[in-house]
Design goal:
The protein is of the alpha/beta class and about 350 residues long. The chain is about 35% helix and about 25% strand. The protein has an 8-stranded mixed beta sheet, covered by helices on one side. It has a 6-stranded parallel beta sheet with strand order 3-2-1-4-5-6, sandwiched between helices. The chain has a two-stranded antiparallel ribbon with strand order 13-14. α5 packs antiparallel against α9 and α7 crosses α9. The longest helix has 21 residues. The structure holds (2R,3S,4s,5R,6S)-2,3,4,5,6-pentahydroxycyclohexanone. The site of (2R,3S,4s,5R,6S)-2,3,4,5,6-pentahydroxycyclohexanone has 6 residues, from α7. The site of (2R,3S,4s,5R,6S)-2,3,4,5,6-pentahydroxycyclohexanone (ISE) has 6 residues, from α7.
Length: about 350
């Protein structure tokens, strides 16, 4: 008898279909048992390829007695209800970001899991499994850079659809930098500012692209993020950490470098995140499957998902208002986000009496 973890995959758009393929062909000890999507034809097509059952009702997929664990790649707006159902059944779930779409529901999920006394939710921040990120995290944790002072992140996508406005850039792209910074530095982000400059003419009217996002951490370190989703070039994700005793850089994309007879030098560009983080996704899935079988998680937790939701919500408020927003995550209460106190601005010096 097989002891494969029988998984229901909910949502088989690009990411979900990618995971179904990985779980079926590359991950050991796992089997996709049920596939659900709001597009029934899509679910049937993906299920057919891997010999799974297509199910039109997401709740029926979660509650199927032949399902041991769930992978949520469904739209974020569906996550709260689906995570609740997984917790009610007490089964492990790997949830693609966002955990949920608002702070209160994310907090409620964290509390509900806590009350069960068992970690069942892992969040799909795949960068934590990328060899470059894990090496950088270890270097920092081992004190190799001394005290970290600044993190500089560039997150560039070659192209996105018109729905990808500046708020979406924060919730969908910058969210990875939020989690990466928390992972690398091992501390919470406490404030966020968003600076809008000139936009690319590739952006729809009114959309600010690129934007510069600046976070502060509990220890006072600064994290700068350039988010630019319409570069027209390649998928580029770079992170540099500057510490008291040195700096370290990852994401240079320096794979195969070729010098050719036509006098050119260089390598191939990375077209998208699946190519850049393919290995990380596979490691993430394997570790999740192994952990789920052992009744635990091995990666970012519900709390990590919740912290990211809260910081990104503060980021969206900062973008809308042009004001710095603070984030308070500590304690059992729902995270508070609040604008920086208005200040009086720059005061002209009082020159009276300065000259004889
Ligand atoms: C996408 O949803 C991802 O998760 C990618 O990692 C990110 O680079 C991209 O900007 C997002 O839209």
């Amino acid at each position: 008898m097989s002891d494969d973890l029988r998984i229901a995959v909910l949502g088989v758009g690009m990411m979900g279909a990618f995971h179904v393929d990985a779980l079926s062909r590359r991950v050991r000890g796992a089997k996709v048992a049920v596939v659900n999507d709001f597009l029934a034809d899509k679910a049937a097509e993906v299920a057919g390829v891997v010999g799974a059952r297509a199910e039109s009702d997401p709740m029926a997929a979660i509650n199927d007695s032949d399902v041991d664990a769930v992978l949520l790649a469904s739209p974020g707006a569906a996550h709260a209800e689906q995570l609740n159902a997984c917790l009610d059944r007490g089964i492990p779930v790997l949830c693609e970001k966002p955990l949920t779409t608002d702070i209160a529901s994310a907090h409620a999920i964290v509390q509900k899991e806590k009350a069960l006394g068992k970690q069942l939710i892992q969040v799909g921040f795949m960068r934590r499994f990328d060899p470059e990120y894990t090496a950088l995290q270890k270097l920092i944790a081992d004190g190799g850079l001394g005290k970290p002072l600044m993190v500089h992140c560039a997150h560039r996508n070659p192209a996105v659809g018109d729905h990808f406005n500046s708020e979406f850039m924060i919730r969908d792209s910058v969210v990875h930098e939020v989690d990466s910074a928390r992972f690398l530095l091992g501390e919470e982000l406490t404030s966020v500012e968003v600076i809008r400059g000139a936009s690319t003419s590739n952006a729809p009217h009114g959309v600010h692209d690129p934007i510069l996002v600046i976070f502060e951490t509990e220890s006072g370190a600064l994290v700068t993020v350039e988010s630019f989703v319409r570069t027209g070039v390649a998928y580029e994700v770079r992170t540099e950490v500057v510490g008291e005793r040195g700096s370290a850089l990852i994401g240079l994309d320096q794979n195969l470098q070729v010098k050719s007879t036509d006098g050119r030098w260089g390598g191939a560009i990375t077209p998208g995140f699946v190519e850049r983080f393919g290995q990380a996704y596979d490691i993430e899935l394997q570790r999740w499957v192994d952990a789920a079988k052992a009744g635990t998680i091995d990666g970012p937790s519900a709390w990590d998902g919740y912290a990211a939701v809260a910081v990104c919500e503060a980021g969206v408020q900062a973008l809308r208002s042009g004001v710095k927003f603070h984030v308070h995550l500590a304690g059992g209460a729902v995270a508070a986000i609040e604008p920086e106190e208005p200040h009086a601005g720059i005061q002209a010096p009082d020159l009276e009496g300065a000259w004889p």
